[in-house]
Amino acid sequence: MPSVVVVGTQWGDEGKGKIVDLLAERADYIVRFQGGNNAGHTLVINGRKHILHLIPSGIFHEGKTCLIGNGVVVDPAVLLSEIDRLQESGLPVPPGKLYLSEKAHLIMPYHKAIDLGRESLRGKTRIGTTGRGIGPCYEDKIARRGIRVSDLLDPELFGQKLKEILEEKNFYLQKYLGRDPLSYEEVYETYLRYGERLAPYVANISEILDQARREGKNILFEGAQGTQLDIDHGTYPFVTSSNTVAGNACAGAGVGPTSIDYVLGIAKAYTTRVGEGPFPTELRDATGDHLRECGGEYGSTTGRPRRCGWLDGVILREAARLNGLSGLAITKLDVLSGLTEIRFCEAYELEGRRLSSLPARVSEIYRVKPLYRSFRGWQEDLSNCRRLEDLPSAAREYLHFIEDYTGVPVVMVSTGPSRDQNILIRDPFRA
Ligand code: GDP
Ligand code: IMO
Ligand code: MG
Prior knowledge:
With 431 residues, the protein is of the alpha/beta class. The chain has 13 helices and 20 strands. Mg(2+) binds at residues 13, 40.
């Protein structure tokens, strides 16, 4: 009856969706616990690509239950269109297959307007957010003026709350951000309709998970974003607005820390980042372009080209510590094929000092110089490798070094975007 948490160890887009889809076969429940539709998790099943933003990546398996926990911020329009899209592609998502926490906060139209308004006002100092209203929604949650899923189900209460909040938001939108105000009636009517459609999905997720544990079910928690985007531990302020570390699986789904058995960190064999902020191992050269093209590194949510660079051991070690990683899944190893040399950042240098962790101040992170260890590359195509022995010795050396350096065993290696392109070394559900 193990519970496994999957988290990103870098700046997101490590391939969490693919790994969660793979592990979902062994799980009974798949749970999102933070973030919102800033996430874009890609699954390739039978040659067909699916991108999920809110619905957990276990949805393509029969007989599994997908849960959206209280820690997720939910744009109801996006959730409903995701349900509709799956239905159109022949996969019905009825209540029972998917549940939504009654305590999850709703992304409202003013959250999106404020997110976009602030970013354009900031100009050069922008964060490079996804523009989905994530930050402003979490702000309202913490400020205790958020609207939750359960509020939507009580039209009178919802109306009162919306009226009060909208007055303040419209003032801010018009007077500070120079944007159009939102109409109360329009938002009210639209959201009530969303509420009616979502009502059958609404549930107490904590109770469902408690019951599941008592019945000895396997639970898989699906993190979004990555450790360096964590609101506390990431490269602040160039982060997202939630805790992305494994510990938040508990608060964000309503389970206790004693119920987590295994934490799987997902790491790309190199590093990428979307949006602004420091990125010590970034390659602004032909090798960076090579990684972007070979890895198809374009955002699954916004389509933006991802910044690419070498694997950064310093942030991997931080991820091991901050998440308490039990194992690592290394993804996109196939993308490194064809390079003559592969580099791995072992430490940073700042003003003559060697650093083995990231400074807290972003102004300092911008100035660190990566210190690299060099590995020989390999030319072989890895996309058909299914066992460690199938990998060229240079690739195995690279993986062994990552294990030694981080102190975390590599338990899975992904060698392509499809569900079956994996080397499974140890099953996290049987660890
Ligand atoms: P997530 O946000 O962590 O779920 O990752 P994304 O889906 O945003 O980005 C990962 C991208 O890499 C997607 O396009 C995946 O289909 C693709 N991908 C995942 N694993 C592999 C792999 O091992 N090799 C290759 N070539 N592509 C992969
Ligand atoms: P998945 O789950 C990569 C980044 C944005 C921006 C910063 C803040 O697919 O790995 P936000 O809209 O959250 O306020 O933006 O965080 N970001 C992601 N980058 N993958 C993600 O999710 C991301 N979600 C947010 O690009 O830099
Ligand atoms: Mg993604």
